[in-house]
Amino acid sequence: MNGISIMKPQWSKDSTMNSGSCLKGVGPWGVLPVCIMFFLFFTGCAGNKPLAQGDILPAFMLQTIDHTRFYANRQKGHVTVLVFWATWCNYCKQELIEIKKLPAQFAPGRVMVAGICTDPENAEQIRQVVQGFHINFPMLLDEGARLFKRLGLNAYPTTVAVDPDGRVIMIAKGFSETVYHQMMSKITLALEADNKG
Fold first, then answer.
1. Residue ranges of the alpha helices (H) in the chain?
2. How would you write the pLDDT of the chain (197 residues) with one tens digit per residue?
3. Which end of the chain is more exposed for a tag (fewer CB within 10 A), N or C?
4. Distances (CA, A) of 110 to 21, 62, 78, 166
5. Residue 91: helix, strand or coil by DSSP?
């Protein structure tokens, strides 16, 4: 893990806007209401509440690059780590390389990792990443980044860890050695609680 570099989050292309875009063509008395409206929209307040630690992960189904189906509600009984990434995000690819080592740190079958690519139209690039980096976990395809947006996420990479009962125990934007160790600790505590229960 000493080779992990700090990877700051890269903001979603859909989550940023020109700082002057809400002012164009608006009179002096209309600026504040319009900017507030844009703020609410882009921070997710106008739509679904962003996913937070302690929430139950909403049910979803996504296709994988191998043409199988992944059901979130069938993952209970082990910790699930979801890595949201995009093909244009180099930091994301570095995380995929490191995160594949995570399940081996725990008992077999207790931790499962899945990647969720939000630009699956770049199928050939996804396959190159999977094959070139020897990714050994499912790679899911989030068409139109619909799940990414539904969960209120806005940065790449974003990693979501879910306990055996389906409850979110950690959400991390960006990736670093510190994040990795925090995730290890959260997963250890979640598995200990599951074993006692």
1. 31-42, 90-99, 123-132, 146-150, 177-196
2. 445 544 556 655 554 433 333 333 334 334 333 333 333 334 444 456 899 999 999 999 999 999 999 999 999 999 999 999 999 999 999 999 999 999 999 999 999 999 999 999 999 999 999 999 999 999 999 999 999 999 999 999 999 999 999 999 999 999 999 999 999 999 999 999 999 87
3. C
4. 48, 22, 5, 13
5. helix
CA distance 84 to 172: 10
Write the class of the CATH domain 50-196.
alpha beta
- Cα(50)–Cα(97) distance, integer angstroms: 27
Helix (H, G, I), strand (E, B) or coil at 178: helix
Total count of residues recorded for the chain: 197
CA distance 189 to 110: 12
Cβ(6)–Cβ(176) under 8 Å? yes
Residue among 50, 110, 107, 109 nearest 84 (CA): 50
Q: What's the Cα-to-Cα distance from 115 to each of 74, 80, 89, rounded to whole Å? A: 16, 11, 13
Domain ranges of the chain: 14-47, 50-196
Q: CA–CA separation, 92 vs 103, rounded Å?
A: 18
Contact 140, 70 (CB under 8 A): yes
With beta carbons less than 8 A apart as the criterion, state whether 92 and 83 touch: yes
| Closest of 130, 116, 112, 122 to residue 191, by C-alpha | 112
